[in-house]
Records
---
Amino acid sequence: MSDIDCLDPVRKALLDDLDGGFAELFGAYRGVVFSTALRLSGRWADAEDLTAETFLRAYRAVAGYERERIAALQPRAWLLTILLNIWRNCARTKSRKPPPDLHEEPVDTVDPRESVEDAAVRHETGDKLAEMLSMLPEDQRVAVVLRHVVDLPVHEIATVLRIPQGTVKSHVSRGLRRLRTLGGVQ
Amino acid sequence: MTQDPLLAGLAALATDAPDGLLERIAARWLTAPSPLGELSVAFTGQGIAYVHRGEGFAAAFRARAGRPLLPADRPPAGLLPALRTGRSSGVALDLRGLSDFQRDVLLAARTIPRGEVRPYAWIAAQVGRPKAVRAVGAALGANPVPLLVPCHRVTRSDGVAGDYVFGAAAKERLLVAEGVDLDAVRRLARARVFYLASDTTGVVCFPTCHNARRITAAHRHGFRSLAQAQEAGYRPCRTCRPALAA
């Protein structure tokens, strides 16, 4: 907290100006948050909703933070913690009541940027793996996505999930073993 | 990096977020000229969310919407002409976060044409809550998008402009600039005339309705209440619909 100059640009920008800093935060972590959301939820539209909600909550939270707390923030782990909370809550409420919010705009179910050829390629390779991921138990799926899709180090996953590093490693390795079994000899 | 096809496959599942996503999260802002001077305007992908005059725009928007506010490259479609001409019905609005009642009140106020005014009770009747006249006043006072929802066109029936988000003086100034003859409305109100009828058409209107403004003096009849006008054989105007406030 004493030495603001040695902070990464995102946190420095957040301390400078909340709104400009938010743009930096979004730019730096949009891919990580979206990829995690997409591979956890398995649906493009849900991933967009989850990502938007995550950054919105992050903004509202950081608006109330002291400068010291912002300076001490680990933005990536913090954002992913928010995402996982929202995702778990969503999954829980969805299982209870399905009605959608009528005030929200409808969302596309596919990536609008994707060409037909890209979609075909993805269908052959990524989709199978993504589908296998969705068959993993939640603990293992989260751990595998964070470790191998978005490439988080084990200690950061431990922070996000608030579990010991050893437990992270065992979730990851069990998840991988299961994926290999599901996919035959990969 | 790794030879393992499974790990390579997993790493390939990472993807960037779609480009439009930031617009679903953040609002954009810019300043725009208006008859009341320069205004700060915030908008989202859904439409204009907030119009502010003077200092404290960003803080006020943050407290209200809790969304990041980033500078805009260009104004949203229709904003500048709407502010210039006072004809704002084509501009998309983002009224999320308001109560249903407040939204109904604002949408009702939006139907009042430029150059005309309606009483608070008329809005209350429009939204199906004829007794909620004070609540209508409160909802209009909290209008997040003044000028684009022309809450300045809702006035007291005695011809006094009444309160306004940007101050009573600004309200009078806007109405005069739009061609509302407030002095005439006040003169009529002092004579206890709140409706004008034409004996050529047999129609009774609010005094600022464009149909009422066309009535020549010889054929003009003033009424204190709609009931009196109807007793005298006049039917309520279908344009300004005074029957709603009776």
---
Amino acid sequence: MGIRFIIMVNKQGQTRLAQYYEYLTIEERRALEGEIVRKCLSRNDNQCSFVEHRNYKIVYRRYASLFFMVGVDNEENELAILEFIHLLVETMDRHFGNVCELDIMFHLEKVHFMLEEMVMNGCIVETSKPNILTPVQLIDKTS
Amino acid sequence: MNPFSSGTRLRDMIRAIRACKTAAEERAVVRKECAAIRAAINENDNDYRHRNLAKLMFIHMLGYPTHFGQMECLKLIASPGFPEKRIGYLGLMLLLDERQEVLMLVTNSLKQDLNHINQYIVGLALCALGNICSAEMARDLAPEVERLLQFRDPNIRKKAALCSIRIIKKVPDLAENFINPATSLLREKHHGVLITGVQLCTDLCKISTEALEHIRKKCTEGLVRTLKDLANSPYSPEYDIAGITDPFLHIRLLKLLRVLGEGDADASDAMNDILAQVATKTESNKVAGNAILYECVQTIMSIEDNGGLRVLAINILGRFLSNRDNNIRYVALNMLMKAVTADAQAVQRHRSTILECVKDSDASIRKRALELVYVLVNETNVKPLAKELIDYLEVSDLDFRGDLTAKICSIVAKFSPEKIWYIDQMLKVLSEAGNFVRDEVWHALVVVISNASELHGYTVRSLYRAFQTSAEQETLVRVTVWCIGEYGDFLVNNVGMLDIEDPITVTESDAVDVVEIAIKRHASDLTTKAMALVALLKLSSRFPSCSERIKEIIVQFKGSLVLELQQRAIEFNSVISKHQNIRSTLVERMPVLDEATFIGRRAGSLPSAASTTTAPSVNLPNGVAKPVAPLVDLLDLSSDDAPAPSSSGGDLLHDLLGVDLSPASQSGAGQSSKKGTDVLLDLLSIGSPADQGNSSAVDILSSNSSNKAPDSSLDDLSSISLSSRTTSNAAPMMDLLDGFAPSPPQTENNGPVYPSITAFESSSLRLTFNFSKEPGNPQATVIQATFMNLSSNTYTDFVFQAAVPKFLQLHLDPASSNTLPASGDGSITQSLKVTNSQHGKKSIVMRIRIAYKINGKDTLEEGQINNFPRDL
């Protein structure tokens, strides 16, 4: 199991999406998110995108005001995760059209559906954007 | 629609939350929404169930508890429509986890949905199962998942594959059922199925050796072919990332090949060509390409040795390491760490670059590089590497210094070629970053110094020099003080001069200066000051000319507020002024500390250490018989050991000084005073065994207190100072503690003395407080409360309650009784412990309530106490 959690946080450090692939209590989550956000947001652009925290390695990437943070274990390929974050953003872009923080807030469940199609139990399921989006858009048609 | 449902749409709730300016406002909005959702749940509101759940997910994301919505998820899952199920399953995955029992209820719904005719619903169920399934569910649903691995739609097969991973991890016994279906997935063309199938095979190989053998034999060739096809595949827009087709699949394939190639020459052979191709042909100007190269290098380093490939891999890493992109350098360092075991020589070649990375501005890179340097160090390169690191210590970031210091100390201790080099390096570290050095490290240094008899003079002179420039480093000060105490005469007389040294002129009074600075320095902590006092005592004998001056310094600490220091000062003062005849034997040099024992104790083997530590005090070289041996105890480690099993393994020096520096531990306080008595009794060599004398003293005290309540400050062993206790029952000690009158011990020599106060008085009741401080913890005050009945009725069911503001912490011990006899004919005592976090800034205040019954009738008295002494 490579990916332990995926968090999206804005510049103010407010969580916009959190998906965990291992069990943490709500207090642990809040604490963890706070610690990670503090660590990552204080780094500048020249520093590398990897931060070690507790027994996680956080791979993060910034898009405008949003930070995407993926917690992985030691086995995972950090560069691939970096590329994965980009894939996620591109997928959201294709769905929402120039995705922004508000899209994620107001369509939280959609983003979760997309994530569900891409990652399951911490492993990557699908990397093709059309394949990811077909089931997600299906629900729009039916409802 | 139900009147209690707030009826706000999800969108409106999110807007409301966004509009919140403060966390408190947000909490209020969330509370209101949660209340509405609960109401809707109680109403069993069907129409808005999925909207409510969507709201709950948002609230959950913000970090509020949402357990009350769990049952709603199950209801939605059980409903027939796809949209409801969709949101229900999402809620299931977000709000629940495998530890909750509610989950058992969902097994049936899952089973139905796994067999549903609508493949999207099957997909939902698989996804949920893959994310949250527990061992029981795994057993129940494994056959369904196994069947779905052969489902016609590839989107179901890929999810079934990942679901299988979860199942075999939960129940490894089931692994063999999945081997055949898993290997057939490897022949697929669909990337989703391939990537998940490869992942499933990788996990199977980790769980079962049978699977590993099978897949190695049957699939290696196929996998190599798949990777080759993928690497050579023409542009495919669906999977293209920066000109590479599906780098994620590349990486998964390389990972599985690594598992298969590890420890198997044939399999490794089969994949050599394709690895060479990937390593040479992959473009390295984009992240995706580098990710593949990185994975490829890992595989090459792990599989069976092939010289050519290894060279290729190490070259790629070299290129990575000199890359300007920090991400690439980070993974290079990471990879080199793994490559060290395979090919240390090749990694050593990059040593200078790695050393540069230790000094990088990026904390993540520094950390990786430091760890790498740490494993690269060996006997041959320790000197230059340690020098580089120590030089860098000077300019390093504060938050990195702790790590760096620990690593340097560990390297130096592990690989030091000779003692003098070790001592030199440690002194440098202590002077640069002494405040970051952990206790066991400088304890170890002292042990080494003590063992290097030919270097005593050199060491103490070096320390003296270092102290002149770095007196702010606590641990350096401690080691210096200890060494000057032990070897001060070497310092003054330039004894044992080495060729490399410049002679220095230090007078006796210069040496005393150092100790005086250390003891008077404001920032010095208790340990340092206590060590300085011992050093002074020793110097008073080594330097007779300074004896008077030393005595003056010591005398100043007779009034110290810290019990430990006060006690030492009083004892040492007596030794200096009254016991000239034994002083020189008393303060002889410490016997050489036993390195083996120290190492043993560091390893935490306390029992064995305890038995061995008795040895040194017995074979003392000083040859003076009984009266002196216990004296050595004062400075040695043996006698304190047995009664203090709580003291941590590494605290050789603490024991050595007879200090119990853990005032926080509950037993500590009692023990420390007990130990103190031991030492004192020993010091005077009272005929009876120390232990016995001591325990009887305690008995006397405790019985005393129960009879005579007004004197009850005595019964609190933790608060009472040693000197008061000994005066009250050990007559032979009088001369040691001269100046103290034998009678009322509890007031004048109680260290910091606070007058008792009448905290509360009414017509029927009087409450007095006596105060005492815990040694070493100025924030804590122990209050002995004494209740006196002023009326002629007996009070029963007597209960005393107290409340304090937030900056205080209050701990109430049980009262001595709950019946208070009439007319002052007896009293109840109760001790309270107050910890003042604003010590020195605010004084204590307390509100009290006293409840009791007079002839069965309830009476209540309340009041506030403001007349506490100011500096408690």
